[in-house]
Design brief:
With 67 residues, the protein is α+β, with helices and mostly antiparallel strands. It is built from one helix and two strands. It has one helix at 45-61, and strands at residues 13-20, 31-37. It has a two-stranded antiparallel ribbon. It is elongated.
């Protein structure tokens, strides 16, 4: 993006909230998280959201536990 090309780190990706498990003495069987993802003005928000969701699904599918 022409307005941010000189910035070393123009956008942020932050997993700011994580919740998981049913009991403090067991390995959590589930996890949910909320994240904030910055996008550049020239990017399409829906396309960025889809790209992130696809990446997470792909990573989970390739992990024996998450898949």
């Amino acid at each position: 993006d022409k307005h941010f090309c000189d910035h070393h780190h123009p956008v942020n990706f932050n997993v700011g909230k994580i919740a998981g498990g049913d009991w403090a003495s067991s390995v959590p069987a589930w996890c949910t998280f909320d994240m904030r993802v910055g996008v550049l003005p020239s990017q399409n928000l829906k396309e960025c959201q889809q790209e992130i969701e696809d990446l997470i699904r792909h990573a989970a599918a390739n992990d024996p536990f998450l898949g």
